[in-house]
From TrEMBL:
Residues 344-560 form the Histidine kinase domain. It comes from the Bacteria. This is histidine kinase. PROSITE patterns: HIS_KIN, PAC, RESPONSE_REGULATORY. Residues 585-701 form the Response regulatory domain. It comes from Salinivibrio costicola (Vibrio costicola).
Amino acid sequence: MASQRLTASARSDSESLQETLFELSRVEAREKRLREENDAILSAISAMTEATTKTDIFASLLGVIRRYVSFDSALALSRNRETEDAFRCLVATDSSLETVTWQTGEVFRRCVRGETVAIYKPGLVKELHCLTHQYAGYINGTALISGLTVNDSEVMLVLLSHRRDSFNDEAQQVLDRFRPLIQRTIMDIDYRHRLHTLVGIRTQELNASRQRFQDFAQTASDWFWELDNSFHLTYLSSPSTDADIDPEALLNKIKSDTALKARLERLIRHEKAFSDIEWHMRAGTNDYWVSLSGRPFYNKRGELVGYRGTAKDITTTKRRVEELQQARQQAELANNAKSQFLAVMSHEIRTPLNAVLGLIDALQHSSLNADQMAWVGQMDKSAQLLLTLISDVLDLSKIESNRFSLSPSVMRPSDSVTNVYQQLVDRADKKHIYLSMSVSSVVPETIFMDENRFTQILLNLIGNALKFTDRGGVTVSLDAEQHTLVLWVKDTGIGIEENQLARIFDPFTQADGSITRRFGGTGLGLSICKKLVEMMGGTISVQSEPNQGTDFCVRLPIIAPPDGALPPERPKTDENHDDVVPPMTILVAEDSRANQMVVRLMLEKQGHRVILASNGEEAVHHIQQHLDDFDLVLMDMSMPVMDGIAATKALRMAGFDKPIIALTANAMDEDRRRCIQAGMNDFVTKPVRAESLHAVLSDYQPGLHTE
C-alpha cells in the first residue's frame, strides 16, 4: 500500500516536471519567435532607413510580413479625413491596382479604430466593390486589412490572396503584433508621397516662373542684369529692342566710362539702391540714352552678394521730350508773335477808331435833325461793337499767352454790382424786359479781389443774358456761403440745348450758327469769363433748358483784406464829372492828324486851350520853351522821332512836374506799367470819349494835383 502511494506520488511529480518542461519549451519558442520578429523589424527599419523611394520602403515592410503571412498582392491606401471621401493608393505591388478608387465603408472604419479584419468574400464588402471582373482572382480569394490613424490621415494596409484560406487568426495576430512597424512604414510612405507631390508642384511652379521670367526678359525692352561684388556680370538678358545695342558691349561701355563706373561702384560699396541713372552712350553712328536702376541682394547670413537691376533704352523718350520742348518753344514763340500781332493790330485799329468815335461825339452834340441823330446813333453802336470786339480779342490773347495778371485790392462787391446795374439797366428797358439785382446781407462789405476783373465777369454774364432774352428778364443775386462768394445770373431767354452746353465756354463759340447770325457777337465773352474765374481760384457752371432760360453760377473764394488796408473810396458819380473844369492850357502830343483834330475839338468845346505836337521831340521843345505855360500834357505812346515814353522821361529830368496823361491805343497791362514807370500820372486808352476825357481832366485840374 505504501509502495502504491509512492508510485502515485512519483508519477504526479513526473507529470508536473513534464508540464514544466513543456511550458519552458513553449516560452523558449515564443522568445525565439519574438527575437526573430524583433530582428526582422530591426532589419526592416534599417532597410527603410536606407531606402530612397516609397516602393523600397513598402518592399521592406512586405519582406518582413511575408515571412509570417502568405499573400499575392499588397497595397497601402490613404486619405485626408477632412478633405477627401475616397482612399488613394500610395503604393502597390501590382501596378494595375494603383488606379483603383477605394470607397470607405464600415470595414475601413473598423480598421482605422485598430482592428485587423480578414475578408473571405471580398465581393460582398463595399470597400472592395472596385475589384471588378479584371480582378476576379482577388474577388474569389481572401483579403486581410489593417488600418490606423496618423494625424489627419487615415491609412490602410490591404493584403490580397487568390486562395480562400490564406488568412487565419494567426495572420491577424501577426499584423497586430507588427502594427507599430506598419504605422511607421505607412507614415513614412505617406510623408514621402506628400513631400514628393509637393516637390513636384513646387518644381513645376518654379519651372513655370523661370520660363515666364525668361519670356518676359526676351520680350521686354529692358535689360535684366546681375553683378557680383567685383563688378563681374553674372546674368544679362537679351531683350527685344529695336536699338542696335549689344548687351555685352553695353557692359563694356559702362566699365570704360570711368565716371559712371566710379559712381556705380560707390553706390555698391555703400549698398545703396539706385534708380533712373541716365547715361549717354554712342554705338556706331547712333547716339543712345540708357537708364540704369538696381538694388542690392543678400545671402541668408545678410552678406551682400551683388546687385540686380535693369537697363532701359530711353533714347526714344529723350528724343520725344526734346521734340516736345522744341514744339513748346515754337508754340510759345508763335503765341508771343500772335499776342504781339494782336497788340499791334489793337493799336492800329484803335487809332482810327478814336477819330471815328470822337467825330461821332461831336456830331451828337451838334445841331442835327431826328433822322441824322438816328444815323449817328447807329454809327455809335457799330463803333462801340467794334471796340468791344477789339477788347475781347486782346483780353483772350493776354490770358492765353500768360501775359495777364490779376491786381487784387480792397473792394466792395456790392458797389461793383450797383455799378454794373446802372450801366445795363437802360439796355433792359429798351428791350422791355426787367433787370433785377440783389446783394445778400451776409456778403462781406469788403474783400480782397481784382475789382476790374470781377466787374468784367459781371458785365459779360449779365450783358450776355440780356442779349439772349426777349421776354421776362434777368435776375442777378450775390450771396456768400462760408468762405465763398456765390454769383447767380438767371435769365428767361432762349436757353441752350444740352448737347451744346459743353461748348459754350470755348473761344469763338456760340450755341449754333443761327444764334450768331441772329444776335451777333464773337463768342468770346463766356470764354474770357471762365478763364478769369479760374485765374481767381473759382468755378463757373451753367444749367439751361431750351426756351426756358439759362442759369450761370460763379463761385469765388472770399479773401479777407490784409491788415491795415483801407476800404476803397466810394466811386465818383457822374455829377462829379459834370462839374465845370477851369480852362487849362493843354499840350496834346499826337502824330495822327485825325486824332489831333478830334482831341482838339473835344478839349476846345470844354473851354480849354490846346497846343499840338506831332511827336515827342516837338512836345519836349514846346515845354522847354514855355515851361510854365502848360497845365497838363496828353502824351501818345507811339510817335515817330521820339515816342511818348522817352519824351516823358526827358520832361521829368528837365524838371517838368505837371500832370502827364498817357493817351494811347496800347491797351496792354505792361504798357500801363511802362507809362507809370516813365513818370506819367495816368493812363487813358483810345478811343477816347468826351466823358472819359472830362473825367481825367477833372481829376488833374489845377489845385487838385499833388506830387
